[in-house]
Structures are given as structure tokens and as C-alpha cells.
Amino acid sequence: MITYQEARELLESMTRSESLLRHAYTVELVMRAYAAKLGENEEQWGITGLLHDADYEAHPDQHPNVIVGLLRERGEEEMAHAISAHYTKWGVPYNSLLDKALLACDEITGFIVACALIRPGRLQGLEAKSVVKRLGQKSFAASVDREEVRLGAEKFGVDLKEHISFIIGVLQQHQQELQLEPVGEQA
Q1: DSSP characters for 121-145?
Q2: Rounded to two decimals, what is the model's pTM?
Q3: CB 62 within 8 Å of CB 34
Q4: pLDDT tens, 36-85?
Q5: How many CB atoms lie within 10 A of CB 131?
Q6: Distance CA 145, CA 156 (A)
Q7: Per the domain annotation, does 56 fall within a domain?
Q8: Which of 52, 103, 125, 156 maximizes the CB count within 10 A of its CB?
Q9: Range of the domain at 146
Q10: Which candidate, 175, 173, 172, places its Cα nearest to that of 186?
Q11: Is residue 79 part of a domain?
């Protein structure tokens, strides 16, 4: 299996944007937490989350085909398939729990970070009901596809509010390394 260090190097060779790197790390953390909760392979799920958008900045017109191809060359078919399916409009079937988890975690994790960034307390005190309310505001984080959020939770078989609460809890545990501490508390 591809090592975590190799995955980080691969991500960082194609991604320079701080916000895209933070997105990769947040999705990695959430995927690892779900793998632990569900008794799945934490390393595989984490690396899949880490690499899901690795080629987005360097190869936007070919995303996700570049990273999928690189993973397939390394024999990482499960990761490659999950990444090839992390947007429903691509029409790739959801064959495994890994596929469904990545779909469910991608858009909503980015949206939760966007919600946190506009709050002085960042993740502190952020509640699922506030995130759900923001989902209804189409002008807020307008690039987030609300239908993908809904379909992801549905395919993964989780209640959206519980899913959001779980993600917030995971991110709160890592707020310092993600630079999401409350304003005025950064070291």
C-alpha cells in the first residue's frame, strides 16, 4: 500500500493552495475517524481522503483522472475507485463503504470549515443546526453543491445532522493543527 509519506509528497507535488491543502487534511482526518468508528482500514481511508483532490489544482481539466491513474499504477484500485466516484455527476458506481464515505465527507467537510472560518470562535460552539441553516443559504459558500451533501449522507446511510456533528467533533480535536482555533487564541 502507498505509505502516508508517499501520499503527502504526491499531494504536495501537485497542490500549493493553503486552502486546498487544508481541505485535503480535513477530509483525511474525518475519513480516518469514520474508519475507526466503523472498523475499517484507517490508513487506507485516511490516504483516500488526503488524495481525493490531489490533482485538482495542477490538472483541473483532468481531475480526478490524474490521481486515479497514479493510484491504479501503484495497484491501489480501491482508493482509485473511491476517488473516481467522489462526485455523483461523474456517474461512477458506489461499490464499497469507502466510496460512499468519501462522497459523504468531501463537500460537507469543506462546508463546515467555511462555516467555522466566519466565526470568531471557529469550531468552538459550532453546532450542526447552524451548519444546516447555512446550507439553506445558497449564497454562502456557493461553490458547495448542496445536492452532493444530501446524496452523500443518503448513500452513506447517515443522518445529516448526526454526520455534521461527528465531523465537527473530529475537526475540533485537530483545530490547532488545522489553524481553526478561536480568533485571538492562535499560538
Answers
A1: TTTTT--HHHHHHHHT-TTTTTTS-
A2: 0.96
A3: no
A4: 999 999 999 999 999 999 999 999 999 999 999 999 999 999 999 999 99
A5: 23
A6: 17
A7: yes
A8: 52
A9: 4-173
A10: 175
A11: yes
